[in-house]
Amino acid sequence: PATEKMQFESDTNSMSKAEVKMYMGRDPDEVITPHLWRYSGNFTSKKFGEGMDSYNTVDITFGMLTDSHKYGVVGYTWSVQ
User: Fold this and answer.
1) Cα separation values, 73 from 6, 41, 46, 52, Å
2) What does the buried/exposed string (b/e) look like for 26-60 if buried means 16 or more CB atoms within 10 Å of the residue's CB?
3) Can you tell me the mean pLDDT for 61-75?
């Protein structure tokens, strides 16, 4: 999920809001009910994990895939279970 977020921000960095809307298939300014994405299994990331090597489950909300500095969405919240 961290790679997808970086890819998304890379793809949309130079886009207008209208282009981002087409890219996402929805308006980023809409109020979104967060859809929980659960990644079961093992996710290893020293870069995003601040020294923690693995996560059994990683929960992120769909809204967090938006470009944070453009739409005021906070970064990932890691849920280590």
Assistant:
1) 14, 26, 23, 24
2) eebeeeeeeeeeeeeeebebeebbeeeeebeebbb
3) 43
pTM: predicted TM-score of the whole model, two decimal places: 0.28
- The model's pLDDT over 48-61, given as tens digits with 9 standing for 90+, comes to 544 444 444 444 44
How many CB atoms neighbour CB 70 within 10 A? Answer: 14
What is the Cα–Cα distance from 7 to 13, expressed in whole angstroms?
Answer: 10
Those residues whose C-beta lies under 8 Å from the C-beta of residue 19, and which sit 6 or more positions away, are 12
